[in-house]
Design goal:
Pfam families: Pyr_redox_2, Reductase_C, Rieske
CATH superfamily of the largest domain: FAD/NAD(P)-binding domain
Helix content: 10-25%
Function: Induces apoptosis through a caspase dependent pathway. Reduces mitochondrial membrane potential.
Structural class: alpha+beta
CATH topology of the largest domain: FAD/NAD(P)-binding domain
Keywords: 2Fe-2S, Apoptosis, Electron transport, FAD, Flavoprotein, Iron, Iron-sulfur, Metal-binding, Mitochondrion, Oxidoreductase, Transport
Subcellular location: Mitochondrion
Strand content: 25-35%
GO biological process, one term: execution phase of apoptosis
Strand order of the largest sheet: 3-12-11-6-5-4
Number of domains: 4
Length: 596
């Protein structure tokens, strides 16, 4: 059976070898099950409104045309749910009012050039289509019809969409899955985190209808990994990114508890630890990181944990309740675990080699402010030291001995001393790996091997924000975007990554948001009150702002992220006066002006 799908390849990506005599793109040929098959990839239309039941529709007048100025947004109530009404360039648009990621009110977000950015975690959506354009999150916003009659603005919407406030893009399905050889796939994705899942979904959204296989060492389907340290008692089904039915519906196969031991790029074969082999045509490596372990005596004692799975997190919570906890490492994971356990454990002690938490990432002043907040919640810090020994009693942890000589009572120990890329299985593959073990990719997430892509925490890639410097950005949001870019380029779209890194952490009810890439910053300009944990910090290198962080000043981080995404520069000399004005008046319109 010859299956034909139309591929639209950008003009600049077409080589002479791929051109037919009449100048049109010739079919790509994929080899599946040993048989050459021709594919003409055809763009899949995305339905603007998947709901067709008239009884499910509601229409309401929401305002006068003069009630909104250009660049303004307003939450409007349609009786059975709310929508976000937007006016830009004289036109009205209506979409869902909550971010599908964690439900942030988008009316408090940032509107800029046809898209809105979430105030909490930086996800971006088109106001014209509702489609997600930057991450985190998987779903788009529902888009509602807007009409103007007698200078009144009406919105027509689906009741179901008003209630769910999310929309999953239409996706293709595998044409004939039953005919495939189990040991052969068109696309193989090693790793089932955010990067792997977004890659698979993007392929289906773009109309790709051949076999997709994801494999993971985990026993679960893809889940929201950041919640392992922020919401430690969550069960796997509570933090699943997609339900099991989703993978069945869209023919995305997930092989759990399957570890790849080697990759033969010449013959396009992945070899699994149990000896099973799978042929592939395109490969994505998205294996993420593996947590570092302690090297001291007693590291194998029971009740010493790395938080890697939901079971790890659940077990720690159970054992830590009303007990003594020692956390090694003031990393994001270590600090989040300390915050979560502070009210549950009898005591929480945190051991760190540096003298201030987060110093390299947020700077000393912000780090001290965060440290003070933890101390106010009974977390005890032991700084500028490390663990020399773990002692046991009847096989279980009893004490943690520090190099300073201090002995800490401990029923549970959580290790958060960093991570290394999970790329050891690639050492003999021929795939370019740097000295630290990271996979080197270009702007299209391609490795040095044709047809092999890599994404997520295990890669270094050119960051447009920092003049294409090769960086590793182990952020949840960035992993999503890596997966999308890899998928688009598996389909020869020629799409380059240009997103602005965005991350967040939550501790004691305070959310610290961060955008940019501040590695190597030489100064921090702070406005607001660190003691009250209501501030914004600008990280500068020479004369240029390279990153921003804030607590209790939304949506300043999302606003700056939009400026950086537009390729504009904020100068250090402007921060003191202009940001001060923004704080006093609430006016941040200067950020979206022209020029630097």
């Amino acid at each position: 059976v010859e299956v034909k799908i139309e591929v639209v390849i950008p003009e600049k990506e077409r080589s002479k070898e791929e051109m037919s005599p009449n100048g049109k793109a010739s079919p790509l040929i994929y080899k599946v099950n040993g048989t050459a098959r021709h594919y003409h990839l055809e763009e899949h239309p995305i339905a603007s409104n998947p709901y067709h039941n008239p009884k499910d529709m509601v229409e309401a007048s929401v305002c006068h045309v003069k009630d909104l100025e250009n660049g303004q947004m307003r939450e409007v109530d349609l009786g059975c749910g709310k929508a976000l009404l937007i006016k830009e360039s004289g036109e009205f648009h209506a979409v869902g009012h909550k971010c599908p990621h964690y439900g942030a009110p988008l009316v408090k977000g940032v509107l800029s050039k046809g898209r809105i950015r979430c105030p909490w975690h930086g996800a971006c959506f088109s106001i014209g289509t509702g489609d997600i354009e930057d991450f985190p999150g998987l779903d788009s916003l529902p888009r509602f019809q807007v009409k103007i009659e007698k200078e009144k603005v009406y919105i027509r919407a689906s009741k179901q969409a008003l209630q769910t406030q999310r929309r999953t893009k239409m996706m293709a399905k595998c044409i004939s899955l039953s005919n495939y050889n189990l040991s052969s796939t068109n696309v193989l994705i090693i790793g089932a985190g955010a990067a792997g899942l977004v890659c698979a979904e993007t392929l289906r959204q773009e109309g790709f209808s051949d076999r997709i296989v994801m494999c993971t060492m985990d026993r679960h389907l893809p889940y929201d990994r950041p919640k392992l340290s922020k919401s430690m008692d969550s069960h796997p089904e509570q933090i699943a990114l997609r339900p099991k039915e989703f993978f069945c519906t869209y023919d995305i196969e997930v092989l759990t508890e399957m570890q790849v031991a080697a990759v033969d790029v010449k013959n396009k074969i992945a070899v699994f630890k149990d000896g099973f082999k799978m042929e592939y045509n395109k490969l994505l490596i998205a294996t993420g990181n593996m947590p570092k372990t302690l090297s001291c005596k007693g590291r194998e004692i029971e009740n010493v944990f790395n938080i890697r799975t939901p079971e790890d997190a659940n077990r720690v919570v159970k054992l830590a309740t009303s007990k003594n906890v020692v956390i090694v490492g003031a990393s994001f994971l270590g600090m989040e675990v300390a915050a979560y356990l502070a009210e549950r454990a009898h005591s929480v002690s945190l051991v760190e080699l540096e003298h201030v938490p987060f110093k390299k990432f947020f700077g000393e002043r912000v780090g001290r402010a965060v440290m003070k907040m933890f101390e106010n919640h009974r977390v005890k810090f032991y700084m500028q030291t490390e663990v020399s020994e773990l002692r046991e009693q009847e096989g279980k942890l009893k004490e943690v001995v520090l190099k300073s000589g201090k002995v800490l009572r401990a029923d549970v120990c959580v290790v958060g001393v960093g991570a290394v890329p999970a790329t050891g299985f690639l050492k003999q593959s021929g795939i370019n790996i740097d000295s630290k073990g990271f996979i080197v990719v270009n702007k299209m997430m391609q490795t040095n091997i044709p047809g092999v892509f890599a994404a997520g925490d295990a890669v270094t890639f050119p960051l447009a924000l920092r003049n294409n410097k090769k960086v590793n950005v182990p952020h949840w949001q960035m992993a999503h975007m890596h997966g999308r870019i890899a998928a688009l380029n598996m389909l020869a779209h020629g799409t380059e990554i240009s997103t602005v890194p965005y991350l967040w952490t939550a501790m004691f009810g305070k959310s610290l948001r961060y955008a940019g890439h501040g590695e190597g910053f030489d100064d921090v300009v702070i406005q607001g009150d660190l003691d009250e944990l209501k501030f914004v910090a600008f990280y500068t290198k020479s004369d240029e702002v390279v990153a921003v962080a804030s607590i209790n000043y939304d949506p300043i981080v999302s606003k700056v992220a939009e400026v950086l995404a537009a390729g504009r520069t904020i100068r250090k000399r402007d921060v003191d006066t202009v940001i001060s004005l923004s704080f006093r008046t609430g006016d941040m319109s200067w950020l979206t002006g022209k020029g630097s």
